[in-house]
Amino acid sequence: MTIEGPNHVKPEYRIPLTEVLWQLADDDLVIAFRASEWLGLAPHIEADVAFASIAQDEMGHATMYFELLEALGEGSRDDLAHLRPSAERRNAVLLEIPNGSGSYLHEPHFDWAFTVCRHYLYDVFEALRLEALTQSSYLPLRQVAQKAIREEVYHLAHQELWLRQLAEHSKLTRARLVDGLSQAMSWAGDLTWAAPWQAAFEEFSLVPGYRALQQRWRDAIDRKFREWGLPLLKAEMPLNGRDGRHTRHLDDVLSTLSEVYRLDPTAKW
Amino acid sequence: MADDDQRLAEFQARIDRGEKVEAEDWMPDDYRRQLIRLIAMHGISEIMGTLPEKEWVPKAPTLYRKLAIMAKVQDEEGHGQLLIRVAEDLLEPLGQNREDLFEDLFAGRLKFHNVFHMPAPTWADAGIIGWLVDGAAIVTQSMLLSGSYAPYGRALTRIVEEEGFHIHHGESICVSLAEGTPAQRAMLQDALERWWPALMTFFGPREGTHLSTHQQQNLRWRIRTKTNEELRQRFLTKFVGRIRSLGLIIPDPILRFDETTRQWHYREPDWDEFRRIIHNHGPMSQERLYLRQLTYDEGRWVREVLSKNARRSA
């Protein structure tokens, strides 16, 4: 089954399609924000450049998904990215958790270990989800996924290298890594959580194999964690972002992202 | 001693023939010191220069503007990386590396460019930085491109190419604001007024009738090929018309081009203020240094992982 574009979308297909797109767009927008906070502040100049490039890729993906929503008549991409309240956001809560204490402007006591762990957990899921999306019934989404997955391979390799280096370097770096990983896992549950109503993602072949992604993600990270001698922690879900439940941190993220746009959303910027 | 004089004369002869110097070539200690001073300051300025703009990266008003400014700030960080590597090759025979450069920065021994000590309180500041600060940088860098030290020239070739994109990015932000609502235009005019003094001092003080021996030496070695004032004149020629064409008012009532002398006349900038700023007493100097040092110190444990692994693989 292939749906060529917005003009071929029937009402029963439209609801799960937009749900998938909200999830994709919101995930990438929020993780791009968190990654960009490190700009100019990463522990190493080379790491700064690499992480900046990753942040840009994620923001680029978010933009493509918001454009697909715009093409479906959901509103302008910039209104969708900047003006929706946090209760309408579908990003995983894991992605909105701050990089550490302080903000990118004041007293940024950021935690590199948590940052790379969180990003790794996301990249593993993102790669699996994109792989599934390359078989999506919605042609414009399939095309975006084919483009994005090429970049995701590099992101994943980059984060794997960080985790392995920190795990193997010394007792101290391993302890810091495990601490970062525990923090990340204490929020990671909703990243891969599949709601009963998301059965439609599979029924319409929007995300083929969606419900199996959770287990595939678990298997993929466990395999690596065993290899690196890291604990296999449970992915907790204190809040479910896929249901629009978020921490207050998301409000901070959104108010920063939209600070200038909100001055005048009708103006040309 | 005679040998040294002869080596020096041969080195000067190479330069005069227009030859380029490579990192592994013999060079006078003073030539090396001048290059380190210049390139380390340039590299560190690129790194410090990411800070005022990064404030606006997530706040950029639209998704496209966010993408563009992210790419821009990444480029600046990349330029810093490239330049610091060039400086590291020069520092190696002295037993120093980039850690020393950062220590010098934090101790106030290594200065960063005056413009990066200034506040950027609105989105229009991000536009002015991209357009005019990068515009000023490209004037200096295009001149340095033809300098005698080949590795710096090669790095600059790439940098100047990317700065060209940055100017378009910054100009595009400014054009949108200039053509926008009254509030957007006012925001842009304010930003221009805030940045103009820093842009006028960007190239350094005007030389008197006699150049300092320091500058004469750098000209003779073709580390640089133009004076500060020549660069400032070129900047004004390139940008004054474009700024005015956006309906902006440059905050200098006596600024005009004299057709007979082919020179711009302008109000003399406050050079005492300029000196205070570059000695880390500018409005944002301490705050930005603090931000950089805080994260530098807290990231030390991560850098140790990298340096040990680099030694292992070496």
Number of H/I helices of chain A:
10
Helix/strand-derived category of chain A reads mainly alpha
CATH T-level fold name of chain B:
Ferritin
Series of secondary-structure elements of chain A, N-terminal to C-terminal: HHHHEEHHHHHH
In the CATH scheme, the class of chain B would be: Mainly Alpha
Number of domain units of chain B: 1
Major sheet characteristics of chain A: 2 strands, antiparallel
Radius of gyration of chain A: 18 Å
Strand order of the largest sheet of chain A: 1-2
Q: Which parts of chain B are unreliable, with pLDDT below 50 for 5 consecutive residues or more?
A: none
* CATH-defined superfamily of chain A: Ferritin, core subunit, four-helix bundle
Summarize the structure.
Chain A contains ten helices and two strands. Helices cover 61% and strands 1% of the residues of chain A.
Give a verbal description of the structure:
The complex is a heterodimer of chains A (269) and B (314). With 269 residues, chain A is mainly α. Chain A has one domain (10-237, 244-263): Ferritin. Chain A is 61% helix and 1% strand. In chain A, helix 1 packs antiparallel against helix 2 (45-71), helix 2 crosses helix 3 and helix 5 packs across helix 7. Chain A is globular. The N and C termini of chain A lie far apart (40 Å). With 314 residues, chain B is mostly helical. Chain B has a two-stranded antiparallel sheet with strand order 1-2. In chain B, helix 3 runs antiparallel to helix 6 and helix 6 (150-178) runs antiparallel to helix 7. The longest helix of chain B has 29 residues, at 63-91. Chain B is globular and about 70 Å long. The model of chain B has no long low-confidence stretch (mean pLDDT 94). Chains A and B meet through helix 2, helix 3, strand 2, helix 6 and helix 7 of A and helix 2, helix 3, helix 11 and helix 12 of B.
